[in-house]
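Still learning. Show one?

>
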Amino acid sequence: MNLEKYLSVTPEIQAALAEGKPVVALESTILSHGMPYPQNVETALNVERIVRENGAVPAIQIEHCGRQKFLGTQPICAASALPWPKLWNQYGVQSVPHVLTIEEIQDIVHAFGDAARRAKELVRRKGALSDNSLPGKLADCQSKDPAESELFIVEGDSAGGSAKQGRNPRNQAILPLRGKILNTERTRFDKMLANKEVKALITAMGAGIGEEDTDLDKLRYHKIIIMTDADVDGAHIRTLLLTFFFRQYQEMVEKGYVYIAQPPLYRVHNARMEKFIKDDAELNEFLLNRVSEDVTVVAANGREYTGSDLIRLMETIEKIELRVADAESTGMPRPLFLALATYPRAVDRELLEARDADFLTWLEKHEYALSLEREHSEDEDEGRVFAVFENTGSHHTRRGMEFFASRLYRQTWQLFNDLREQCGELSFSLRRKDSSSQAGDVFDLMQMTLDEARKGINIQRYKGLGEMNPEQLWVTTMNPENRVLLQVSVEDANEASDAFEELMGDRVEPRREFIERNALSVQDLDI
């Protein structure tokens, strides 16, 4: 094995390797998630002292090696759970993990392993899970058959109250959790067990905790359903719960016992009807079906759209809107992308380099000017050509020629061109029974149509499950005949583990990089 992949090879380590001395390494992440951290800084500092007293050299690990438990042929010590960064900063010691891995100190390895197991048992004996009685906030079900029993983990006491009243008490149990639970990806085992919400969840499920003590045969419910609000806070709580289940009960997830409820986001109603709608896409579909027979879209060439034709026209506009949003997420200004996508001829390198007069006039109409830049490199004789678009505010947008051959641009242009061939021009009006209105563009037409569909109905957007009364919560989210549940599965355990470590772990850099990579794709931002 290449030691330099995992170690910062200092002069001291180089000398030790040359002399054949044992090198000690310790990784920073708990290999066994049931292993508790030592409870005091003296224990942590003693490890380095013991390493040196036994003729070994501490090595600094700079890359996490996952679940690999060997460095060369040497076993990694059970002391891999030591919280070096947090504790050693206070004492001026390097804030990086150190490690034990040598045969010469096997007794120390076993001693740390035994100490970790004893500490874990001590936590349990002192009361973290010694009280086997069910938590008081749990509204248990009557059935004792796990195969038909369901546990709903509900966000907050308000939603918990509605769920308790609306459930089927024969086989549905409700456990309300107050606020956000601990992030178990970066919480010590003993601290996790001391948390009231986590303890209540563990006790309610009845399967125990820890690698050696979890027994899914004792699991009291074979459907563990996470039911949180359909907002950003609800998504955060759902992520924290999924982190807990994956790290502490991965087998439970793999067996398909964990589900996510899909509560509706909207309630649409008037004096004659009531309908619950899952998301924005379903809401638009409902509104278009509602209005399709009441209004008529008239194109520039006189073609009329109503009924199913109108719905298909609006679906085409929705597809265009999605592609425009994708272009914006790459940093392309919306007005510029629409100007390029609605030009009667598909823009390509030939058109740009010819500086076609009609195209320049079209750009000027949309308040943009075009210039070309060429970059030369040793590998390319001709160099790369870039189109630079400048608006009236002197903002520059630079795109290589490959952009105009991309699927994003070509598909958007084709959608607009198909509309132009059907309708003559991209000009539309909306005709009602007693009036008619001209639309500014296809997106304005879509909004006018949806506004017309909203007349005569009330649309309520739920901020939380607590806004639903018990009957509504039962009908929409808990009744097996109507509800939609997403079953949580693990397609690639290693990839899932890396994702949880990256997004929920204690290292800031991977999260920052993830945010930077995906910032432009954010749709719901909670500030």
